[in-house]
Amino acid sequence: RMAERQVHRFGGRHVKTTGDGILATFDGPAQAIQCGLAICNGAHQLGVEVRVGVHTGEVERRGDDVAGIGVHIAARVQARAQPGEVWVSRTVTDLVTGSGITFNDRGEHPLKDVPGAWQLFTVVDPAAG
Predict the structure, then answer these.
(1) pLDDT > 70 fraction of the chain, expressed in percent and rounded
(2) Which of 25, 50, 97, 106 has minimal Cβ neighbours within 10 Å of its Cβ?
C-alpha cells in the first residue's frame, strides 16, 4: 500500500502487483526515479529492503495492463539492483540530463533475453548524503 501511495504521489499509474513487486508507469523518467527513491526510503522505515528498476521505452497497452520490450528491460534492470537501490538504464540517464538527479555508473551488464550489454547506473539518493 505504501508503494501504491508513492506511485500516486508522483503522478504514476499502478498497473499491477507482480508477486512481491509492483509495475507502474509514469509520464516521465524523473518522476519514476523520485518515486523509486521514496519507495526505497519508505520500505526501509518499515524494516523492509526493496529493489527498483527504471527504464523508459515503448510499451504495449493491453487493456489495463502493459507489456513489451520496455517492460521486460525494466524488470531486468530491477533484477540487477541491490536491496535499497534504484537502478536505471543509460536511456533513462540521457533523458533526465539537467534534472539534478545524479548517478553512479555500474558498468555494462547482460540482461536476460535482451540482446547486447546494457550500461546501468544507480541513482544517488540525496537524502542519504
Answers:
(1) 99
(2) 97
